[in-house]
Amino acid sequence: MIEQQYYYATGKRKSAVARVRLYRDRGPIIVNGKPIEEAFPWPSWQQLIHLPFVVTNTANQFRVVAKISGGGQVSQADALKHGISRALTEADPNLRVPLKKARLLTRDSREKERKKYGLKRARKAKQYTKR
């Protein structure tokens, strides 16, 4: 079997990390060995993942194979979107401008805030009573 050339990129969101391989031939998006419809059953998640292809008008021109670990479903979908966007810029540097304009190359840096001592959660405290 001949190994095809691919474009590699990683996408991140919260604690989810997506390692994305972008192949030049047509084909499905495979996530952790499953098709995208099985891995992300909600249509809104699938639209989020397809967004980089819609913005760059490259739908059905690439095949995606991704391995995702950590995080929840929404976080994983966002990490995959980020990884696909970065891999598209590796494949064609001219696509960087529309992806940057659509804010798809910027990593969402929001993380879960740690719990502080003396509090119930990160910011929730016991109710204050005056008397």
Describe this protein's structure.
It is built from four helices and five strands. It has 131 residues and is an alpha+beta fold. The mean pLDDT is 93. The chain is elongated and about 70 Å long. 26% of the residues are buried. The N and C termini lie far apart (78 Å). It has one domain: 2-Layer Sandwich (Ribosomal Protein S5, domain 2). Strand 1 and strand 2 form a beta hairpin. Helix 2 packs parallel to helix 3. Strands 1-2-5-3-4 form a five-stranded mixed beta sheet.
- CATH architecture title: 2-Layer Sandwich
Strand arrangement across the biggest beta sheet: 1-2-5-3-4
Multimeric organization: single chain
Which geometry do the CA atoms define? elongated
Order of secondary-structure elements: EEEEHHEHH
- The separation of the N and C termini measures 78 Å
Strand content: 15-25%
CATH topology: Ribosomal Protein S5, domain 2
Measured as a percent range, the helix fraction is 25-40%
Give the count of helical stretches: 4
Poorly predicted tracts of residues: none
Strand tally? 5
User: Major sheet: size, sense and barrel closure?
Assistant: 5 strands, mixed
CATH class: Alpha Beta
Q: Any idea what the radius of gyration is?
A: 19 Å
Structural class: alpha+beta
Number of domains: 1
- Compute the average pLDDT: 93
